[in-house]
Design brief:
0% helix; Jelly Rolls; 4-stranded antiparallel beta sheet; mainly beta; single chain
Length: 148
């Protein structure tokens, strides 16, 4: 009988290393294109995202979060709308809650669906505060499912 299981993670990728530093509340940061098809026929279906936030005081925030979109290019050329100054016209692919806390935080989103071609990650700060001036990063791992 066949068994469905996860593949191993690809190597972790540091995607945004300084771009979120000092990002004000309600502001966006668009990352570079990610080629989800670089493994040829073994296209990766999912990604896990890790967001590390430098020390920020969210004690006065209500429902702080980071919004995440995976912007695809269905026609192979043009990416879906979404920039540093424009939100996509659809809900985020993930809303990553933050703790109401004063300090550093490491949060994640699991099993985010990729695209069969390329995509870009758009991050929106919905924490209620400006992010720390340093030490904010976004990393991801790619993986799939296999039947054995």
């Amino acid at each position: 009988m066949a068994e469905n299981r996860w593949t191993a993670y690809d190597s972790i990728v540091s995607y945004l290393t300084t771009e979120l530093n000092g990002l004000v509340d309600n502001a966006n940061k668009l990352g570079a294109a990610i080629d989800f098809a670089t493994a040829g026929a073994d296209r990766k279906l999912y990604m896990d995202i890790e967001i590390y936030l430098g020390s920020v005081d969210l004690l006065a925030s209500v429902n702080p979060a980071i919004y995440l979109w995976v912007l695809g290019r269905t026609d192979g050329t043009n990416f879906e709308d979404g920039t540093d100054s424009v939100d996509p016209a659809r809900p985020p692919d993930a809303i990553i809650p933050l703790r109401v806390f004063n300090g550093v935080q490491r949060v994640s989103a699991k099993r985010i669906l990729t695209t069969p071609d390329q995509g870009k990650l758009l991050i929106e700060n919905q924490s209620g505060e400006t992010l720390a001036a340093t030490a904010n990063t976004v990393k991801y791992n790619l993986y799939s499912e296999e039947f054995v």
